[in-house]
Amino acid sequence: MEQNQQWSSKIGFILASAGSAIGLGAIWKLPYVTGTSGGGAFILLFVLFSLLIGFPLLLAEFVIGRKTQKDAIAAYKHLAPNTKWYYIGYLGVFTCFVLLSFYSVIGGWIVQYIFYSVTGQVGTGNADYEALFNHAVSNPALAIGGQALFLIVTAFVVGKGIQAGIEKASKFMMPALFVLFIVLIVRSLTLDNAMEGVSFFLMPDFSKLNSESILFALGQSFFLLSVGVSVMVTYSSYLKRDDNIIQPSISIVGMNLFISIFAGLAIFPAVFSLGFEPTAGPGLLFIVLPSVFEQMVFGQFFLLMFLVLFLFATLTSAFSLLEIVVAVGSKNNNNRNRQAWIMGIFVFILGVPSALSFGIWSDVSIFGKSIFDAADYLVSNILLPLGAFLISIFVSYKLKKDILKSELIRGTKVNFLFEAWYFLLRYIIPLVIIIVFLDVTDII
Ligand code: PHE
Fold this sequence. Notes:
76% helix, Amino acid/polyamine transporter I
């Protein structure tokens, strides 16, 4: 599909792609995977992967989108006519579809927690947050209801094509989230024994790493930056041909890494101080943060504010996930609304087993994992690395070097940066992905 849409301003593009990138990955997933995968060494590796692998890939997707001005599938067809490379686009669409199916489960938990917060069940002292969390995720009606609500909002916004308007709100929401995190960090760091948490989070102990945690760190960096699925191809296709892409990618990576570190610094000191387990898993944030807010003046109000901002960040990522599925399916804007609802319903159906896997279906296991974990594993540790691998190969082997050069650095003299980017894409990234991948399949 030719893009007839365009961002009304440069900031619109930055906000939308930052909105896609910043979400559960930084705020919910990273802290819990860090907790289960060994702490500081994992974070160090994850930051390295994000800078040396995720970041160059983000730029690569931006180059494809801005150059072709086409959606995730048409873009590859345009650049490599009569080849099968456009399957990268289909792989991305499929990945987003599965990703949204379990993403919405967590979105549903946030919806539930907003409700609990309004009704005073969290944030008002003496609640047993572990019990509350278990109730929230294991009760089928609540889990599925929350997930449905989350998807209804997503389908509504994407169907109407009004994400851009909503993303404008993130101009205020994201800074507010930053500020709230700083308040949280201050509170968390002034708890007793806070330093134990800080050192767990930031002091690398490499003996805690194994092949699997290295793969998790890699998958996490792709998940965090929304790369490997051509979402960023689609978003940058709405740019004008001469818009800058380097600046936005630096801001996106920078902001996202900041939020990631903030989330960890808010959570881990409290984990150790208040006697929780860092290995608590997906419930970590939902159990620990309410307890921190409880230790604050106006805690209940701040908690509600936090949950609303958190939901907002999660929704803007969900919009991008559904958008790419809808953009491919609807050839013109007429049936967009219908398409959004139909796809939303399919995503919901696919997601129900994930939602139930924290409760009545917790015994069902796929390759030794719960349904939710299996879906997440498939996406984060197989499909995203595969998509990323193919994109790095496509850009660096299939596209001409001088074209890439003129696309990326536009006549400026920063040649060595281009060379470094090209080298990473052509040699390092594919190699690292293969090695990390094979290493794990070896031990399974
Ligand atoms: N980056 C998003 C997050 O961290 C998730 C996402 C991945 C969104 C891939 C779009 C595509 O929450």
